[in-house]
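Q: Please design a sequence for this.
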């Protein structure tokens, strides 16, 4: 069935597009793009006063399946992604079993084919069991469907092992995404080391625990001429190292999360474990450096690092609760409200950070752009709609968010994957409306 999106403001930096246009979709691809398109047999969606962008891609998320279905499943996590405006997610491999073999990768993809409304592109482990001792069979994992490699949650401690991993990934043209943490320095810390940790009587994690590993990875990438991607940057010095490496020609990239951009250690409310994450919330100076790097292009992507845990786990108290917060359903309104609406970044830059650059970094050639022949993965935004974060309404199983009750302006109102409307969930697809063109949510 054909779908015709009319009168939307189409924003796609990859093609230099920012104009009011129509988009015709047929057979899961974009068939045409232009003003005043006509398609008598198509279902029509009126996107007046709305913004249509390439489908958003979260290149760093945790779906927990296999192994931890009490926290999240592929079905619930991807419904959360659709509700949040994401047309694709890239789940990290710290599952049980670890995604370190082609069989696990194929199982994830098979379950996604059964239950996911969005694209799922698995990230496989760098090392077997993510134990940093033996390389996985990267070629076989790529053949099975892995799009990148990471031991996220378990940093690659050995520099020699990291060097071998970068060399192996280079031969396949794929990306290594590294969780930069020196466990010897972070130790048993649970929050950023400084005046707040001392006041609360909690063990701290110094910024240097991240920074020395960022520097190591960038030095190795420079020496080998390989790519490397720095996961969830959180410190000013880490950002500086990435900037210098890029200026020196290193093929490095980096990402930041909304929580590290918007919150700081001063926001930690008592011992509320919904503010516990790894890397931890840092200083206001660190958050400002991250924000500047997102605006200037030093940081390439914004990711959710969606990390659901059960309420019982987060209720154990700050010291004993697991690290991580959820983000698939809050990331878009947070970035639109705090960065786009305040003109810290443009809407085009928002699209680069959440769609175009992730597609480029992961080699997803038909994603991240709006052009004839591209996959019909689209996110429709309402920049004027006011939303209140309500954790009880999430599609995710997770409720561990520090943003509950926040009032924000701007959100995703429709998510389209392969030409099919997957959010709103109650969209009566493919039945045609009898009352003329249909309207995604436009209310304030």
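A: Design:
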């Amino acid at each position: 069935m054909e779908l015709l999106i009319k009168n939307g403001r189409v924003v796609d930096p990859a093609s230099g597009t920012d104009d009011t246009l129509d988009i015709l979709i047929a057979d899961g691809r974009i068939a045409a793009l232009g003003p005043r398109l006509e398609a008598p047999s198509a279902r029509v969606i009126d996107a007046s006063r709305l913004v249509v962008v390439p489908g958003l891609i979260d290149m760093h998320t945790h779906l927990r399946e296999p192994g931890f279905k009490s926290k999240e499943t592929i079905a619930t996590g991807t419904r959360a992604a659709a509700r949040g405006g994401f047309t694709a997610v890239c789940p990290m491999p710290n599952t049980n079993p670890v995604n370190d073999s082609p069989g696990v990768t194929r199982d994830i993809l098979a379950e996604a084919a059964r239950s996911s409304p969005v694209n799922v592109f698995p990230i496989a482990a760098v090392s077997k069991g993510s134990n940093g001792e033996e390389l996985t069979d990267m070629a076989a994992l790529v053949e099975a469907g892995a799009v990148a490699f990471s031991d996220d949650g378990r940093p690659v401690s050995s520099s020699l092992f990291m060097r071998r991993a970068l060399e192996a990934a280079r031969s396949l043209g794929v990306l290594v995404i590294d969780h930069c943490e020196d466990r010897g320095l972070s130790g048993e810390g649970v929050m950023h080391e400084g005046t707040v940790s001392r006041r609360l009587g909690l063990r701290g994690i110094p910024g240097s625990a991240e920074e020395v590993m960022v520097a190591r990875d960038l030095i190795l990438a420079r020496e080998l001429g390989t790519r490397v991607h720095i996961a969830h940057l959180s410190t000013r010095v880490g950002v500086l190292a990435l900037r210098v490496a890029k200026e020196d020609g290193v093929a490095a990239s980096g990402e930041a999360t909304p929580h590290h951009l918007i919150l700081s250690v001063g926001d930690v409310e008592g011992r509320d474990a919904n503010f516990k994450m790894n890397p931890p919330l840092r200083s206001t100076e660190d958050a400002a450096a991250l924000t500047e790097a997102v605006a200037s292009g030093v940081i390439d992507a914004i990711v959710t690092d969606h990390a659901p845990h059960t309420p019982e786990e987060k209720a154990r108290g700050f010291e004993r609760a697991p690290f991580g917060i959820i983000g698939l359903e809050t990331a878009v309104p947070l970035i639109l409200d705090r960065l786009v609406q305040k003109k810290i970044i443009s809407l085009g830059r928002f699209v680069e950070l959440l769609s175009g650059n992730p597609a480029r970094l992961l080699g997803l050639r038909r994603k991240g752009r709006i052009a004839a022949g591209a996959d019909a993965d689209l996110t429709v935004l309402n920049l004027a709609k006011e939303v209140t974060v309500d954790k009880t309404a999430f599609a995710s199983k997770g409720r561990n968010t520090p943003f509950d009750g926040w009032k924000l302006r701007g959100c995703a109102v429709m998510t389209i994957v392969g030409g099919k409307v997957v959010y709103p969930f109650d969209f009566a697809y493919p039945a045609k409306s009898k009352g003329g063109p249909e309207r995604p949510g436009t209310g304030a």
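Q: Thanks. Anything notable?
A: The mean pLDDT is 96. The longest helix spans residues 208-224.
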